Amino acid sequence: MLSIGSESVERLVFLMGFLWLVQSVGRLYFAVLGTPGGMGRFLDAPIPYETSLVIFVMFLLLGVLGLVAVIGLFGKWRWGLRATLLVSVATIVFDIWGFTIQSTAAIGFIVPVISIICLYWKRTQLLEVMK
Question: Is residue 68 part of a domain?
Answer without folding.
Answer: yes
